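Allow me, if you will, to draw on your knowledge of protein folds for a short while. I have a record of one protein: its chain in single-letter code and its fold written as discrete structure tokens. Kindly check, if you would, that the fold set down in the tokens agrees with what the sequence suggests. Thank you for your consideration; the sequence and its tokens are set out here:
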Amino acid sequence: MKYREDAVTDFIPDALNNRVVTHEPVRAMASAQGTWEERRARIAQILETVVNDNTTPRNVRKAVKEAMDELFNERYSPSVRAANAIEKIEEVLSDGNIPSFTRTQLWLAISLLESIKAGQY
């Protein structure tokens, strides 16, 4: 594996597959500056990772997909889109079946969404 010197990485063990996963969303959080479109793309990347993870329960993947749809809903302002996406994600965060890695990714996405909701974009 190649690593860039400027990349912020975090290694998290994947207990199911006995491998180490590079946690790229940490880089997104470290560079949370940018335009609305750049931040939305970072959040979408994080949420897409959750949607494509087969270890995540189906109901959680569905809610995260709905949150992504809210982010790209052009009828509302960025703050309203972020608030709607946060609401969708928070509905399933208390699910006890969510893997801890997935829960951490969702918290990261909510953190980025909160900055958009507060108008810091």
Q: What stands out?
A: Confidence is low (pLDDT under 50) at residues 1-14. The two ends are 33 Å apart (CA to CA).
